[in-house]
Amino acid sequence: MSTETIVKTVTSAVGQLSVQPAQADSTSTVQSEDTYKYQHLLPAFDNNKKYAPLRAFDHVDPGHRALSHPNPISFLGNATRVTEMTPNLGTEVEGVQLLSLSHQERDQLALHVARRGLMVFRNQNDFIDSGIDSYREWGSYFGRLHIHPTSGHPLNAPELHLVYRDAHSTFNFELDDRITTTLWHTDVSYEVQPPGLTTFFLVAQPSTGGDTLFVSTVSVLKSLSAQFVAFLRTLKAVHSGIEQADHSRSGKRGGVVRREPVETLHPVIRKHPVTGEEALYINKQFTKGIVGLKREESDNILNFLYDHVAKNGESQARVHWTPGTVVLWDNRVTAHSAIVDYKESKERRHGVRITPQAERPVSALEA
Question: In this protein, which residues make up the domain named TauD/TfdA-like (predicted)?
Fold first, then answer.
């Protein structure tokens, strides 16, 4: 490509677009002040890079190996504090360094996240500052790393999904025509093989606000009647990435679609391959309809389930971010929502998600 190629640079400091000549391909990046420690993790959007459809792969969950360990929570042996966030969801840990875990301890971690749904590790600055290659190695242990079709990623590191908002711009999937920013979802559930164990951390955060809500989709399912659950087990739903892609095609979130969107059928109730637990697997962001039902029937069932997820406080936990926090959750048994309550502060919230894919969802009936 010639040197006439244009690079769009979003100047965060003044909220303007500047155009500069480029030496390589056309890439849009967030430009920040030179003193920002995590400038190398700012979102870039390559306008020319396109990816083929994802291919199927065999996923072996590391948690399987931990089932045979005599003490599958020995990885917490050096912890100075272990707290259950709620009875149904979440464990908070201090004193364990994720970077120091052996392969056997990583297996145990995968099993414990599957069982608890969510784990919050404090004081993980070494992990956060370990760099892009370390993030890739960490995530690859748990599955094939997912490349997001539309979100920003660090330059030359498409395997890392970034969330980013500052005083002048946002590169997140945010809908301004809603009365709330809460949008319960499981990550990229439209993929044939959606994510399993997922790792996320913030490198910049507002002084207050910007928390993340989580819900156990195992727990919300258990609160439904046995007859209704038996009916839901027979159903499959369409999960679609089209709306997300169209959002980017409209010029938002960097305006890039790297891989054409897909729509996939998944069971409404899936079974976890390691724990055997069943979980509700629908979400308001990506689920579009139940196969075989009339529109009104599908809408009523889905809206009831969305409402059940949103209102089931006994199945929810809230993560308050502090510097050095790393959060892991299992996308197969949880849903979550960011809380964008810090807009008025104009402070930066900048996060990195490491997203290994897992198996194709399987219902209890199929299993």
Answer: 82-355
The Cα–Cα gap between 316 and 308 comes to 11
State the greatest distance between any 2 C-alpha atoms of the chain, in Å, as a whole number: 65
Nearest in space to 149 (alpha carbons), one of 261, 43, 240: 261
> According to the model, what pLDDT value does residue 11 have?
33
List of domains in the chain? 59-363 (3.60.130.10)
Mean pLDDT in residue range 308-319: 98
322 is written with which tokens?
């502090």
* Cα 244 to the center of its chain, rounded Å: 14
- From 9, 49, 50, select the one nearest 28 (Cα to Cα): 9
Provide the CA 359 distance to its chain's centre, in angstroms. 16
Closest CA to 304 of 223, 240, 363: 223
345 Cα distance to chain centroid: 25
pLDDT digits (tens, 9 = 90+) for 31-52: 556 789 999 999 998 878 899 9
Helix (H), strand (E), coil (C) string for 251-296: CCCCCCCCCCCCEEEEECEEECCCCCCEEECCCCCCEEEECCCCHH
Between the alpha carbon of residue 355 and those of residues 194, 196, 225, 236, 294, the distances in Å are 9, 8, 33, 24, 35
